[in-house]
Each structure stands twice: as structure tokens, then as C-alpha cells.
Amino acid sequence: MATKQATQAETARDVVMHIARIQLASITAASKFFAGWAVSADRYVQAVSGELVARLEGESESTELASHLAAASNEHLHELTALPNVAVRHFNRELAAANHEKSST
């Protein structure tokens, strides 16, 4: 009877630990996503600002402005579309590392 209770307690503990690992991996993956978004948004705003300042100061032609802004937008959108995959890879690595630690103990 005591062995059965110990096994059930251990199983319950394992389930709780697995849930905690999933939650931690989810939180860090979400933070990775939002941090990547912030970095990408900053780069985009800096690029647009730089292009507009260059145009206002006469350092670039008005015909170049649209193509430079389009290139900055294209790069920004490319970075944004990569973010979900970055977050998923981070989640999977975190969970795999947690499972590896569990199996080695």
C-alpha cells in the first residue's frame, strides 16, 4: 500500500514538474518573440527615420526615397515573419533541455 501511494505521489510530482517546464518554456518563448519584435521595430523605425532625414537634407533624391522605404519595409516584414519560428525553436530547445535534465537525474 505504501509503495502504491509513493508511486502515485511521484507520478503526480512528475506531472506537475512537466507542466511547470512547459509553462516556463512558453514564457521564455513569448519573451523571445516580443524582444525580437521590439528589435525589429527599432531597426525599421531607425531605417525609415534615416531615409526621411536624408531626403529632407537633400542627401538623396525623391525618386530614391520610395525604393529605400520599400527595401526597409521588406526587410522588416521578413524579420517579423521569422519571429514565430524563432519562438517555436526556442520553446522546443527549452523543453528538450528540461526533459534531458529530468532524464539524467
Keywords:
105 residues, mainly alpha
Q: How is this structure best described in words?
A:
By secondary structure, the protein is mainly α. The chain has one domain. The protein is built from 2 helices and no strands. Helix 1 runs antiparallel to helix 2 (62-104). The two termini are 26 Å apart.
Structural topology:
Elements: H1 2-56, H2 62-104
Summarize this entry quickly.
The protein is mainly α. Helices cover 93% and strands 0% of the residues.
Distance between the termini: 26 Å
Query: What value does the Rg take, in angstroms?
Result: 24 Å
The secondary-structure element order is HH
- How many distinct beta strands? 0
Overall SS class: mainly alpha
Percent of residues in beta strands?
under 5%
Considering DSSP H and I runs of 4 or more, what fraction of the residues is helical?
Answer: over 70%
